Amino acid sequence: MTHYLISFPSGAMDATTDELPAVGEDAMAVVRAAQDAGVFVFAGGIDESTPPVRVAGDGTVTDDTYPQTAQIEGGYTVLDLPTRDDALAWAARFATACRCAQEVRAFGEGSETR
Questions:
Q1: What is the pLDDT of residue 10?
Q2: CB atoms near residue 41 (< 10 Å)
Q3: What structural domains and CATH numbers belong to the chain?
Q4: What is the pTM of this model?
């Protein structure tokens, strides 16, 4: 099995503030379905109120981020699935729940958490 990252940037959501509670409920329903199916590994959203920092090998902390990752925010789900087609099917379920397209990426070998 392969771990797949299914994600979206927060700015991609096509939902009004009034719709956000329903979006959350719908997304949690998909998470529960993944848990029930035994494929759930992790899900969560980036806390956008906490700015990112970089930590060097010597422990130096810099209050910034790599320029190419400055826009990493939004929601993330990791599922352990047998095929890419399965990942695409779950991504479609999350896209419907979250009201936006989802990006799918496979983790490389050695990403097992067990």
A1: 81
A2: 19
A3: 2-45+74-106 (3.30.70.1060)
A4: 0.85
